[in-house]
Design a protein that fits this description.
GO biological process, one term: DNA repair
CATH superfamily: P-loop containing nucleotide triphosphate hydrolases
Strand order of the largest sheet: 3-4-5
Shape: globular
GO molecular function: ATP binding; DNA binding; four-way junction helicase activity; hydrolase activity
Largest sheet: 3 strands, parallel
Keywords: ATP-binding, Helicase, Hydrolase, Nucleotide-binding
Distance between the termini: 10 Å
Number of domains: 1
Structural class: alpha/beta
CATH architecture: 3-Layer(aba) Sandwich
CATH topology: Rossmann fold
EC number: 3.1.22.4, 3.6.4.12
Radius of gyration: 16 Å
Organism: Neisseria gonorrhoeae
CATH class: Alpha Beta
């Protein structure tokens, strides 16, 4: 389990807008995101551990073990998921907990992963109770779950 660093400086207020970002703003945000662990600023302990985990998985030729990234919004959990997939040279499959309403939704997602793919479930704490009761054994998952 990796915890993102706590910020010691005064936290800026987060402004929640009713409108979503434009397509151009989203493209700009994606272009500015770091692409590698070396480019990623901060989270030194998490980066060191992830680098070791990634290197070990690559040497073994296996999927990365499950990783849990947690912390307040805006600290880079999604960015780290993208970086992990890129560093491993595999696909990133991304979804959100509230979207997975039934256990079958999660099962379908897991069975459609390619070997070694990274699955990132944002807001997993909001996973529906029926999805949480999924009885898919770990041996059936071929990728890394973040």
């Amino acid at each position: 389990m990796l915890q993102t660093d706590n910020l010691t400086a005064a936290q800026p207020q987060r402004i929640v807008a009713a409108q979503t970002a434009s397509a151009q703003e989203e493209l700009l945000e994606r272009a500015l995101r770091p692409k590698t662990l070396d480019d990623y600023i901060g989270q030194h302990k998490a980066k060191e551990q992830l680098a070791i985990f990634i290197q070990a998985a690559k040497k073994r030729g296996e999927a990365l073990d499950h990783v849990l990234l947690f912390g307040p919004p805006g600290l880079g959990k999604t960015t780290l998921a993208h970086i992990i997939a890129k560093e491993l040279g595999v696909n990133l499959r991304q979804t959100s907990g509230p979207v997975l309403e039934r256990a079958g939704d999660l099962a379908a997602l897991l069975t459609n992963l390619d070997p070694h793919d990274v699955l990132f479930i944002d807001e997993i704490h909001r996973l529906s109770p029926s999805s949480r009761k999924s009885s898919i054994p770990r041996s059936k998952t071929t990728g890394s779950t973040l």
